[in-house]
Amino acid sequence: QQQVKQSPQSLIVQKGGISIINCAYENTAFDYFPWYQQFPGKGPALLIAIRPDVSEKKEGRFTISFNKSAKQFSLHIMDSQPGDSATYFCAAGLTRLTFGTGTRLTIIP
Amino acid sequence: KAGVTQTPRYLIKTRGQQVTLSCSPISGHRSVSWYQQTPGQGLQFLFEYFSETQRNKGNFPGRFSGRQFSNSRSEMNVSTLELGDSALYLCASQTQLASNTGELFFGEGSRLTVL
Prior knowledge:
The complex is a heterodimer of chains A (109) and B (115).
Chain A: E1 4-7, E2 10-14, E3 19-25, E4 33-38, E5 45-50, E6 56-59, E7 62-67, E8 72-77, E9 86-93, E10 97-99, E11 103-108
Parallel strand pairs in A: 2-11
Antiparallel strand pairs in A: 1-3, 3-8, 4-5, 4-9, 6-7, 7-8, 9-10, 9-11
Chain B: E1 5-7, E2 10-13, E3 19-24, E4 31-38, E5 42-50, E6 53-57, E7 64-68, E8 74-78, E9 87-94, E10 105-106, E11 110-114
Parallel strand pairs in B: 2-11
Antiparallel strand pairs in B: 1-3, 3-8, 4-5, 4-9, 5-6, 7-8, 9-10, 9-11
């Protein structure tokens, strides 16, 4: 019940395209859903987060879409850039964060 | 403002040995959490400390332990190392307890290789 399932494991997107990463959770008590971005050799850093009382949150080129009834949420990166190439982790929180297994995103020119 | 500092950054141990990893949180942060990162498993929660007390624990064997000092610095220890303990160990700090409500600030990790 504490699992967060993330897909795809890896993703290649052309520059300027839309990158989409999906996550699903089981525990309906989760009330905080952040996305973290990790570059090689660095620790993860918070990218954007959402609470279940809203269905979408947008910050610049990054958008979280949240579907409470389906227990799913996704990250959309618009106009993807080579600098967005990184590993992305979704997470869900209650008393602590449970992370997905990560998606390695590569943006090609 | 200095970030989360973890030492050592890299270390190699052999099976059966023990290891101690150190974490200095951001100044003013009182909560320190530890995560194990492995390929395919993502980040798995080890434990969280706040005000020198363990407040939350993940599903790891008793070989994994930790502590927090009065200055909020934290250490984690792994005894009787196994090959499967090879991983990147990440420390994260935040201002207060309840990690679901705030941003976790991660260090760059300590990469442990067990031979």
